[in-house]
Structures are given as structure tokens and as C-alpha cells.
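step=encode ok
step=design start
structure_in=
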């Protein structure tokens, strides 16, 4: 039956502002649109039944913070957008109505569909014009947890995102006997307009990151490593004009970290009865923030990554980058409240929710962990670090800036035939150091068995990519015939990002042949994580699990690392390929991939 769905609720502005209560937002007094539906129903709650027909209306709602007016993008009146529940095997038809004065779009993140339904203006279609509409039609051939968001301008950073839950066709809707099923959409909200954030970052890359290391921390380091080493280390960083504490470009200084639109004070709560198994579908819809997720006192099992089932992995904590999703099962047995504690990677703030047997209960909120400090491994000098622990060996390296392409590198279009197949390797070698590229990873290392900067040795079991094993083996067992090596590059000082030291505007598309089996290798020359998203195809992460390698749509490339994944280019068309940190994407870390 194609009944028109009523997902969750139309959130009134009052409810939305309540959700953001910790920010002290005050509602504007303009006339309210339709607020018939009860604000007691969460728009992000999973609808009781799946539907293949939807009408999504996009608008903005203004509100005032102090003397400044800001705006958020709403879908059917809510931020985040309503959770959509679909069913594998259905033919989807979704009408999107644009009530804005500007173009908009919806991209169905992680959904495999025809290129012209992917929703990237200028790549897959023309966009949805102001006051216009567009109807998406595509067959649904997968199940799991996904999300949708605008791919136009900065709308995604201002609230235009929501969850997608797809029931499997031939499997129980609630595997593992889960009694409860919740979506948790994580986001980073700022009332500073995205274009102002960009111009501030352009002026000063650490604009939102002023917790530099102090004299006190120097003495702490000196106690650990000796004063000489500690000073050498500081001098080295200062010569490179980099900061070892430059973790996130945009921080809790201007961000509030939200769960389903609720600030930490508003305390989004998931109810349970003791002994029940609860499924949490965690989606990182933030613009710029990697989160570290845990429920202090409770272990849980990861059962899906990026919508795809994996063999359950028991852990205490995991890192989730923008655009990734993880499903987990947790089973609290005691009649008490547990805090869901989701720290921003740079520890400048956290999102917080609660698992509780009854509404209104709260658990203790732990202190934040120490902030990560970047190391030589992050600079791409992995093995050198191992050879000279304590970094004292680095003091002779006057200015890393001299260290460039003297290091031997594979030549362009080198044909390296592997033992098992004819593999053509396209490796341009380390990119030039220029205005668009500040650093070259001389010795990039495999970091798939590392949980991420700031998460090692914290006494908790933390998920790593190497632990992920797909529940069903890879469908395409052909070896790759081509390997494309790409360097992730950037210049923090000028806030420019790219692949192979080229901004999007200067780069040619990547060409793949239809049904080609290709390996993509990413070398991260920068000091930051980049969650890389290839539209339209699975990225089969080569994580040491052989044919049980996991299918992902978004893969964190850790600083100074090298990783690879396999792709079957089985859908023709033009596709987007980019970093999912929105300002990195907009400032150049974006390519098109053409499959023909
Ligand atoms: Cu990036």
C-alpha cells in the first residue's frame, strides 16, 4: 500500500528550540507553519512501518541567538529531518519539494542506485531549483542503517540531514532478538554561518583551536621524555609551523554536539527494561567532527558498519567519522541510568544522551579524556618514529620543509605485475610541495589496527577497522586489474585541501571502465583524518580479513597512513568522490569519478 507516510512528527519551532536548549536559543516570532502534530513524538524515531512513497518538503526556520539571526534547514518541519523507514526490494518514489529561494538536493548516502538519482548537483543532476521539485525513483537492493543529506552549498552543515532505516527483505527485521531499536543522529551545530567559519579558517587555520601546548605541559613532557627531547620536539613543531594539538579545524568553541537534535543538557533518552537487548543505530551527520562513542560501564557489540552486517565485535568504544554509521547492541541488566558519552575527537566538547528505564533519570557524566597529541606517525614518518623513539633524533632535521621528493617513489604509471594477476599501478608518487601541499608522508604506514589518535592505551577495548569482518563474503572475488594511488593533501596555513596537491577545480575526473575491478590506495600526507566517501559503489576495505573484508561507503584515512580498498565499477555515470569533512570538500578535496 502506498499510503502517504507520517514519519514521526512535524517538529514545532518550540520543540526544536527546546532540543537546543543548552545553546540559549530564542525562537523568532514569525508565524509558525503547521505544528499540528504532537511535539512529544520524536521526528528521529523509527516509524512503525516501512514506506516506499515519501514527500519531503524543505524549508528554513529562522531563530535568533543574541542579536544574530541564524537559520536551520528543515525537512517536513524538523531538524534533524525525519527518519525514513524503507524495505529492501521496494521501488522507491520520493518527491522532494523545495520551498527555499536557493537550489537544494538530497543525496541518499550509502544507497546503491542509478547515477542520476544520487543527488549531487553538477555531478549527477542539475539540483532541485528554488521553489521547484524533483522526484527520485530507484530500486532498493540493500538493507541496514543509512542517512540522507543535502549536497548543496552548506545546507548539510545547517541541519539538512536525517536517518534511513531499511528492513531486510528476507531476514528478521529485529535480529539478535532486539526489543528496542533507536536511531542516534550525531551532529555539530553552530550559529556561526558556514561561510564565516571558512573565512576565519582561511585567515588562521587554528582559529577555533586555541588550546596550544603550554609551559606547564612542557614540564610534563620533560618529566616523561627529558627536557632536551621535550624542547627539541617543540622546536621541531614550531619550525614546521604546525601544531601538535591541531586536531579539529572547528571545535567546541563554536559547536554544540547534538544527539537527534538535542544538546547535552536536553539529554536525549532511550528507554529500556532491564535485561532487554537494545539496538542503537549511530549515524555521524556532523559537518566536521569525529566522535568517540561509549557508554561508560557497559560493553556492547558492533553488528553493522556503514549499513552492512559484520560479525559481532564486542567493544567498549568506537570512533565514528562524519558520514559513517555503526549499529550496536547493548544489554543493560540493572535498573539504573547509563550515560551515552560521545566526545569530540579534540575533547573540546561532547554529545550526551542517556539509556534509562524511566524518563527523567540521569547517569554520571565522566570527565573528558586528554586531548590527542599528534606524533611523527601522523606526519607520515612512521618507521622513523620506531627507529628513534622520543623524537630526539628529529632535532637534526632542520625544518621538515626540506624533506620532499628526494625520497624514492614509484614512477608515474609504473607497471608492476603482481604474482597473481596483471595489476597496473598508477602512482604519481609523492605530490609536489607547493602552495596547495604542505607535507609529504615519507613513510606512510598501515594504521588499520589502530583505533585512532587519542584512543590507544585508555584501558578500554576500542574498535579498529582491522576487527571488521563482513557477515557474508564479498560477492565479487575478481582481483583488481588496476590500482589507483591517490595522495590526500592540503595546506593548513591557507586552508586548501585536495587530492594529489590539486584542488577539485584543477583536476581531471578519475575514469573507470564499466565493471572494472579496481583498487584505490589512499596515502594521507596531511596531519588530519579524512573520511573519504566514494558515491555509488561499495568500498571494500582491505583490512586483512581476506574475502570477509567489510563493505564501507566512507573510510577514515588516518594521518600519515596508507590503506586500500577494492571497487567494482558496476554502475555507469558520473559520481562524486570526496572527503566528508564539509569544509575540506568545499575547499578542494573532491573529485568526480566517471564510469563508462
Ligand atoms: Cu578531509
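sequence_out=
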Amino acid at each position: 500500500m502506498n499510503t502517504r507516510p507520517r514519519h514521526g512528527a512535524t517538529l514545532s519551532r518550540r520543540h526544536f528550540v527546546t532540543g537546543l536548549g543548552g545553546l540559549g536559543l530564542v525562537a523568532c516570532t514569525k508565524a509558525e507553519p503547521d505544528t499540528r502534530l504532537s511535539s512529544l513524538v520524536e521526528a528521529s524515531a523509527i516509524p512503525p512501518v516501512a514506506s516506499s512513497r515519501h514527500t519531503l518538503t524543505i524549508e528554513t526556520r529562522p531563530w535568533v541567538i543574541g542579536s544574530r539571526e541564524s537559520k536551520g534547514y528543515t525537512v517536513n518541519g524538523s531538524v534533524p529531518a525525519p527518519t525514513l523507514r524503507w524495505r529492501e526490494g521496494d521501488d522507491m518514489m520520493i518527491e522532494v519539494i523545495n520551498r527555499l529561494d536557493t537550489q537544494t538536493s538530497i543525496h541518499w548516502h550509502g544507497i546503491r542506485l542509478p547515477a542520476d538519482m544520487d543527488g549531487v548537483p553538477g555531478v549527477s543532476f542539475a539540483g532541485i531549483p528554488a521553489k521547484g521539485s524533483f522526484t527520485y525513483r530507484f530500486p532498493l537492493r540493500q538493507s541496514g542503517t543509512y542517512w540522507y543529506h543535502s549536497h548543496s552549498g552548506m545546507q548539510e552543515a545547517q541541519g539538512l540531514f536525517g536517518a534511513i532505516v531499511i528492513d531486510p527483505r528476507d531476514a528478521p527485521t529485529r535480529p539478535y532478538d532486539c526489543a528496542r531499536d533507536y536511531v542516534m543522529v550525531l551532529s555539530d551545530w553552530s550559529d556561526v554561518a558556514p561561510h564565516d567559519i571558512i573565512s576565519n579558517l582561511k585567515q588562521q587555520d587554528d582559529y577555533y583551536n586555541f588550546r596550544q601546548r603550554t609551559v606547564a605541559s612542557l614540564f610534563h613532557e620533560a618529566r616523561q621524555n627529558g627536557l632536551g627531547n621535550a624542547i627539541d620536539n617543540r622546536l621541531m613543531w614550531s619550525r614546521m609551523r604546525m601544531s601538535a594539538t591541531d586536531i579539529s579545524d572547528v571545535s567546541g568553541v563554536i559547536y554544540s554536539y547534538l544527539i537527534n537534535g538535542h544538546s547535552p543538557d536536553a539529554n536525549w533518552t532511550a528507554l529500556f527494561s532491564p535485561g532487554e537487548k537494545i539496538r542503537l543505530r549511530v549515524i555521524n551527520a556532523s559537518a566536521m567532527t569525529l566522535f568517540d562513542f561509549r557508554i561508560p560501564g557497559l560493553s556492547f557489540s558492533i553488528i553493522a558498519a556503514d549499513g552492512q552486517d559484520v560479525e559481532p565485535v564486542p567493544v567498549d568504544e568506537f570512533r565514528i567519522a562524519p558520514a559513517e554509521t555503526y549499529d550496536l547492541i547493548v544489554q543493560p541488566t540493572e535498573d539504573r541510568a547509563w550515560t551515552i558519552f560521545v566526545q569530540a575527537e579534540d575533547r573540546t566538547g561532547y554529545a550526551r544522551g542517556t539509556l534509562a528505564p524511566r524518563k527523567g533519570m540521569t547517569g554520571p557524566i565522566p570527565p573528558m579524556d586528554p586531548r590527542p597529541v599528534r606524533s611523527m606517525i601522523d606526519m607520515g614518518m612512521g618507521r622513523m618514529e620506531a627507529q628513534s623513539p622520543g623524537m630526539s633524533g628529529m632535532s637534526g632535521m632542520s625544518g621538515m620543509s626540506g624533506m620532499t621528493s628526494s625520497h624514492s617513489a614509484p614512477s608515474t604509471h609504473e607497471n608492476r605485475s603482481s604474482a597473481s594477476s596483471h595489476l597496473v599501478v598508477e602512482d604519481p608518487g609523492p605530490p609536489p610541495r607547493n602552495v596547495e601541499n604542505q607535507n609529504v608522508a615519507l613513510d606512510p604506514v598501515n594504521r588499520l589496527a589502530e583505533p585512532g589518535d587519542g584512543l590507544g592505551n585508555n584501558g578500554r577495548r576500542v574498535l579498529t577497522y582491522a576487527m571488521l569482518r563482513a557477515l557474508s563474503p564479498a560477492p565479487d572475488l575478481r582481483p583488481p586489474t588496476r590500482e589507483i594511488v591517490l595522495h590526500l593533501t592540503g595546506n593548513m596555513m591557507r586552508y586548501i585541501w585536495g587530492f594529489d596537491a590539486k584542488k577539485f577545480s584543477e583536476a581531471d575526473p578519475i575514469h573507470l571502465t564499466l565493471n572494472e575491478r579496481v583498487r584505490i590506495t589512499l596515502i594521507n600526507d596531511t596531519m588530519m583524518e579524512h573520511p573519504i566517501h566514494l558515491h555509488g559503489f561499495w568500498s571494500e576495505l582491505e583490512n586483512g580479513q581476506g574475502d570477509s573484508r567489510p563493505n564501507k561507503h566512507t573510510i577514515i584515512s588516518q594521518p600519515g597512513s596508507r590503506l586500500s580498498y577494492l571497487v567494482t565499477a558496476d554502475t555507469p555515470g558520473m559520481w562524486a568522490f570526496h572527503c566528508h569533512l564539509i569544509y575540506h570538500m568545499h575547499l578542494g578535496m573532491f573529485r568526480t569519478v566517471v564510469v563508462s
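step=design ok
step=annotate ok -> The helical segments are 13-19, 194-203, 215-225, 227-239, 382-387, 582-586.
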